[in-house]
Amino acid sequence: MDNNQVIKLLTDYRSYKFALNNLGGMMVDGDMQRMFKLGIYDERIRSRMSNYDTSSDHSRYSRIVTLLESAVDYVLSDDQRTIIQLKYMDRNKLNLSEIADRMHKDRKTVSTQHKKALSSLSKAMMPLKQDYMEITNFDHMFEEGWEYKEPA
Fold first, then answer.
1. pLDDT in tens, 36-88
2. What percentage of the chain has pLDDT greater than the value 90?
3. Which of 64, 79, 118, 128 has the CB geometry, 3.0–4.6 Å to 3, for a possible disulfide?
4. What are the two backbone dihedrals, phi and then psi, of residue 109, each rounded to the nearest 5 degrees?
5. Is the dihedral of CA 100, 106, 112, 113 positive or negative?
6. Nearest to 7 by CA among 93, 110, 116, 84
7. Element at 27 (helix H, strand E)
8. What whole-number distance in Å separates Cα of residue 25 and Cα of residue 137?
């Protein structure tokens, strides 16, 4: 996995986490446990597609979130982890200059640590295949009057 793929994963982290939470997954004490709560997708599924199995999606998103979180926590130094979390994983993302100000470090030092962190994460995320990273939006299928048509 290259640095651009890692950046894409990190940028989409909150989307993966949101999708996972709404497929019935919930983080409890750092372990993924299946909770049978009513999620956004569950409501749609019951009314329109009662035979839809979310276990594949849940497994895929769970693997992405777990691998990403554990790689950030285990592989990176404290400074690198802070930089990655502030730049990609937090709700209010910061740029490298803002992170440097917050950490009371030089912008160049933060940039160097950022590059090292991406390199380390790219090695740690190697087991993740490209097809696992795709979030497919099927919302159009739930619109009234939608019907499947074979590609031309």
1. 344 445 544 444 443 455 666 777 788 888 889 999 999 999 999 999 999 99
2. 36
3. 118
4. -65, -45
5. negative
6. 84
7. strand 25-28
8. 19
Q: Residue 149 carries which DSSP code?
A: -
Q: What is the DSSP letter of 90?
A: S
- Name the packing angle between helices 13-22 and 3-11 (round to 10°): 50
Distance of CA 23 to the CA centre of its chain: 14
Measured in whole angstroms, the distance separating CA 59 from the mean position of its chain's CA atoms is 13
Residues making up the chain, counted from first to last: 152
Alpha carbon distance 50, 48 (integer Å): 6
Q: How confident is the model at residue 134 (pLDDT cuts 50, 70, 90)?
A: low
Q: Which residues contact 86 (CB under 8 A, 6 or more apart)?
A: 93, 94, 98, 99, 102
Q: How far apart are CA 119 and CA 7, in angstroms?
A: 10
Assign 109 to helix, strand or coil. helix
Task: Judge contact between 150 and 29, C-beta under 8 A.
Answer: no
Residue type, 17: K
Spatial neighbors of 148 by CB under 8 A, at least 6 apart, are none
